[in-house]
Design goal:
The complex is a heterodimer of chains A (about 425) and B (about 250). Chain A is an alpha/beta fold. Chain A has a domain at about 60-215 and about 360-430: Rossmann fold (3-Layer(aba) Sandwich). Chain A contains 16 helices and eight strands. In chain A, helix 2 (about 35-40) packs across helix 10 and helix 8 crosses helix 9 (about 260-270). Chain B has one domain (about 5-20, about 60-225, about 235-250). Chain B is about 60% helix and about 5% strand. Chain B contains eight helices and two strands. Chain B has a two-stranded antiparallel ribbon with strand order 1-2. In chain B, helix 2 (about 60-85) packs across helix 7 and helix 3 runs antiparallel to helix 4. Chain B is globular, with a radius of gyration of 20 Å. Classes of the chains: A alpha/beta (about 425), B mainly alpha (about 250). Chains A and B meet through helix 1, helix 8, helix 10 and helix 11 of A and helix 2, helix 3 and helix 8 of B.
């Protein structure tokens, strides 16, 4: 997930134009007051960060899935699907890593996972989420909406087979076995891909790990939608944004240097004293940015005309501001009811909303999850995307294969010591 | 500003401002049969808050320039930067970066005086004096470890401090996001920078080398990559962030 503020901070850091230190010697902990929302926004910085290699030999790769001429001109920068490979020198196990909602193969969370698995001796292949624009516009699919987990899994599986062929041909990767993991929505995708693989057996995964997955996609996005409610609460949300910026600005004014480092970022957050409602707003806004990107990519590819002109080819120099403004209003629930449900009903006229909600959840493959020994789960008891009862549900389904940390919010502890230790313990057992 | 593009700027910016800005359009050219988007915009544009906080009258030009910059980055700047990083050891890169940062202190100093920020001016002067001497003409940054921290002031901020608004958003060739006010500031700062370089008493081709090196260093130290966000709205996001960021800097 991307965050408005972290974007701002990245920009500020960039503009401060000092060379970034290659290695961060100390990994400081912060003294922010803990909450599940804080951990989701800033990371669970109360716990020390795990040691990752400063740099790893990433090979950025791309593959043609859909004829490039069919990709809309406005997405000229997305011609070919991007992914990355980290390659071991010799034969080794391969792990596919799937990004979360709206995230690319090289998002910050993906990079940490990549480094860690590479250090553990894996060939690492990282793929973008099927909800990420680069994935959407390169997909041949014009029928199903992303979020349809079973269909997303088919798309992913197809891409994985093509990518696997490519890295064998071009990079001479030799696999001893296969594993798959993903965080957030990518976690749910991993489970559905694994089920598909049971039938098609292209990879025969030895290990599958779900990291902070949603149980029910609909429940999770409903929660996130509420954090940023422009339709019912426009004035208040906008005023709150201005206040947040103002406080960050004040904090920055008060700081001695104009430069930024890890400490000063934590300090800014500390001095901004963000309330729970404000943290939620940041999370919700960041989620909305992701879903806006997704909806735009779908509109451009499917000619669905929700936020763009229908039957109009968007020029690459054309203003998209109006589409962005329109998208900012659309909640995921709107998208579900206005796009996903009608699409599904074209296939099967009798399907109801409740049935669809069930289909796009782990409940739909519960029997498989209960019995598949290869699948394990790691999440946090206070993950914000889980509705009441869902943590217990996960514990029940995965039983001994579940590891539930008490703290960390949504994916806030993925780069922290105890999480990484657990990750490595999981993958060192039984993988050859 | 790098000198090798400076001359180009003096002329090009004028031409650009006078004609191209108005000539290019960003409004959609709708085909017959095009249907308006289903989701309507609020009637009152202010209700959009941050997302309509900044007008962009030169959007047509800006978007074309943004596209040009992305391409130039891909085919020219980044390959050069990669080559530079490959052939120079890290400590050389850091030294070069320090050297140009040190020259940049001059305009920070002038601009903090112009904003009556005496403390900032004093600190910057201290840094410049120390780094230029003990720091071997600025190759080493010896001031930061002893608590004289780097500041960031430019003439765009000075103008902002004295109440000049940002004016229209402007995407500059190669340099990227700016505004009418900030590009004016840039011209002023580059004069100050040029004065400093003249003091070094270099020959023309040495100066050319220096400005090339400065351009490479400037790009190398900026981690931004076009469309790395993957978002079709990157232009919009960056416009908002740039203008907001400048407001924050000016308030500082």
């Amino acid at each position: 997930m991307r965050y408005v503020i972290s974007l701002l901070l990245v920009l500020i850091t960039a503009c401060a134009s000092n060379l970034q230190p290659e290695v961060v010697a100390e990994t400081p902990v912060c003294d922010l007051p803990y909450s599940r929302y804080q951990a989701t926004v800033t990371g669970y910085c109360q716990e020390p960060r795990a040691n990752f290699a400063a740099s790893v030999p990433v090979i950025n790769k791309s593959i043609t899935i859909k004829p490039l001429a069919k990709i809309p001109e406005v997405f000229w920068f997305h011609k070919r699907m991007n992914y990355s490979l980290l390659k071991q020198d010799a034969e080794a196990p391969v792990i596919f890593v799937i990004a979360g909602t709206g995230a690319g193969y090289d998002s910050a969370k993906m990079i940490n996972l990549q480094k860690n698995f590479y250090q553990q001796g894996y060939h690492v292949i990282s793929l973008s989420s099927p909800t990420f624009a680069n994935f959407i516009v390169n997909s041949n699919n014009t029928k199903y909406m992303p979020g349809n987990l079973a269909h997303d899994a088919e798309e992913l599986y197809n891409v994985m087979k093509l990518v696997w062929q490519q890295v064998q041909d071009e990079d001479q990767v030799v696999a001893s076995s296969f594993a798959i993991t993903g965080y957030s929505l990518g976690g749910a995708h991993s489970a559905f891909v694994s089920l598909l693989d049971e039938q098609q057996q292209a990879f025969n995964f030895e290990k599958v790990l779900l990291i902070n997955p949603p149980v029910s996609l609909f429940n999770s996005v409903s929660i996130l939608d509420q954090y940023f409610d422009l339709r019912n609460n426009r004035q208040a949300s906008i005023a709150m944004f201005d206040q947040i910026f103002e406080r960050f600005s004040d904090g920055y004014s008060a700081q001695a240097s104009s430069n930024f480092d890890q400490d000063s970022i934590f300090n800014l957050f500390k001095n901004a004293h963000l309330t729970e409602a404000e943290l939620k707003l940041l999370i919700g806004a960041s989620f909305r940015m992701s879903s806006s990107d997704m909806i735009f990519a779908l509109d451009a590819s499917f000619n669905s005309g929700a936020i763009t002109y229908k039957n109009h080819e968007i020029d690459k120099f054309e203003s998209l501001t109006h589409s962005m403004q329109r998208a900012s209003d659309i909640t995921f629930v709107n998208y579900f009811e206005g796009a996903m449900l009608p699409r599904a009903q074209q296939e099967d006229a009798n399907i109801t909303k409740d049935e669809l909600v069930h289909r796009y959840s782990l409940y739909a493959i519960e029997d498989y999850l209960k019995n598949a020994e290869k699948i394990s789960l790691v999440t946090n008891a206070d993950d914000i995307i889980l509705a009441p009862g869902e943590v217990e549900y996960l514990q029940d389904v995965f039983d001994e294969r579940a590891k539930i940390f008490p703290r960390g919010g949504h994916c806030g502890n993925m780069d922290r010591v105890s999480f990484v230790t657990h990750l490595n313990a999981t993958f060192s057992q039984g993988v050859k | 500003m790098p000198m090798f593009i400076e001359q180009y700027y003096r002329k090009a910016v004028c031409i650009v401002l006078s004609c191209a800005l108005i000539a290019c359009s960003a409004t959609p050219k709708l085909e017959e049969g095009a249907i308006a988007p289903e989701v309507k915009l609020p009637d009152n544009h202010q209700e959009l808050g941050l997302m309509s906080a900044y007008a962009d009258p030169w959007e047509g030009f800006n978007r074309r320039m943004y596209y040009f910059n992305a391409k130039a980055d891909q085919y020219v700047l980044l390959p050069v930067v990669d080559g530079y990083k490959k052939i120079t050891p890290d400590f050389v890169e850091v030294g070069v970066n320090n050297f140009f940062s040190n020259l940049g202190e001059i305009s920070t100093f002038i601009n903090s005086l112009l904003q009556f920020k005496i403390g900032v001016a004093g600190e910057t002067l201290g840094r410049f004096a120390l780094n230029s001497t003990v720091g071997l003409a600025g190759l080493l940054d010896v001031a930061t470890p002893i608590g004289l921290v780097e500041q960031d002031e430019d003439f765009g901020q000075t103008l902002g401090y004295w109440g000049v608004g940002a004016g229209p958003y402007l995407v500059l060739p190669l340099l990227g996001p700016s505004s009418l006010r900030d590009v004016t500031g840039l011209a002023f700062d580059s004069i100050a920078y040029q004065q400093a370089v003249d003091e070094l008493g270099m020959k023309a081709d040495e100066e050319l080398f220096l400005s090339l090196l400065q351009s490479i260093d400037a790009r190398a130290s900026l981690p931004f990559r076009y469309y790395a966000s993957g978002s079709a709205f990157e232009y919009e996001n960056l416009r908002l962030l740039y203008l907001k960021y400048r407001e924050i800097l000016i308030a500082r």
